Amino acid sequence: MTTTAHTTHANAAAQTGHAEQITARVEPGGHAEHGSHAAAHSGGAHALHDGHAPHDGHTPQRGAHDGHAEHGGGSHADHIAHPAAHAGHDASLPGGLRITQDGYTLDLDTTIAQPGRIDFLFRILGPDGSAVTEFDAIHDRELHLIVARRELTGFWHVHPQRAADGTWVIQLDLPEAGPYRVFTDVAPRALGRTITLGADLAIAGHYAPQPVPAVARATEVDGYEVSVDGELRTDGDLLTLTVRKNGEPVTDLQPYLAAFGHLVILRAGDLAYVHVHPNGEPGDGITPSGPEVTFHTAVPGPGTYRLFLDFKHNDVVRTAAVTLATTPRQAPEHQH
Questions:
Q1: Hey, which end of the chain has fewer CB within 10 Å, N or C?
Q2: pTM
Q3: For residue 56, which of 161, 137, 162, 143 has the smallest C-alpha distance?
Q4: Confidence tier at 328 by pLDDT (50, 70, 90)
Q5: CB-side exposure of 239: number of CA atoms within 13 Å?
């Protein structure tokens, strides 16, 4: 599988500055087409990623991750042991399945768009119906936007810019017709925790349904091989993703959004959402910069899941995707 990674300007929000975009277009056969921005991959295409200093003053109880203090000294076990960790700690429903939660609503400017580049606008509405403008940071950003095709053959992890009136905007390039799902990870300051809101987006045109990519424990993106060890379980377990290039371990992964990797897990069928950050963090003195990135994961139920790993190397953020099925734990045999 190959992906594209690039930074764009959001035309409709020139006054708000740059809107960075990391694009992974995943094809069912394990390969992705390079879009028209392929030239942006070379030489510091992701300078913006490094240009954001870590946010000071994060408040762990509000869902921010600065220092990971809320996770027991850098471990994300507490954060991921519950599938609803990014869904307001509401264990009754996985994250991303609701457009409204805890009084907050994801309000898309449009739910139908034409293929190609679009200026994508939306707001997070608060309990009083007005656009929210105060958020706590989650891994160096006020908002993480995930866009995925419902067949899980396309994936975009981007970071829009917020205007003063609470409108978020970014330019997306969604080249194919079909159904998409939009997810927002946000921590409204008044709420005091992170929630994940989700909404549908349709790209108009002739739609040819595709199967979810087959289960496989390894993939390739831009000459990098990524493999996964461990099992997906509803009661939690460790997953280790290993990055190699030309067969050699990559030991100098670069920090991206305060981590050596970010993992989004989506369940085929309903797109139940889990966003996982790795155990440890850059600069803690114990976490290596590759080739292995380990996550403690718990998925909300049995099924087939698509895993999207963002990692940064040679100043470019890439996304690798694999498909796994859940594995039940073996019940211990009784001794007679």
A1: C
A2: 0.74
A3: 137
A4: confident
A5: 36
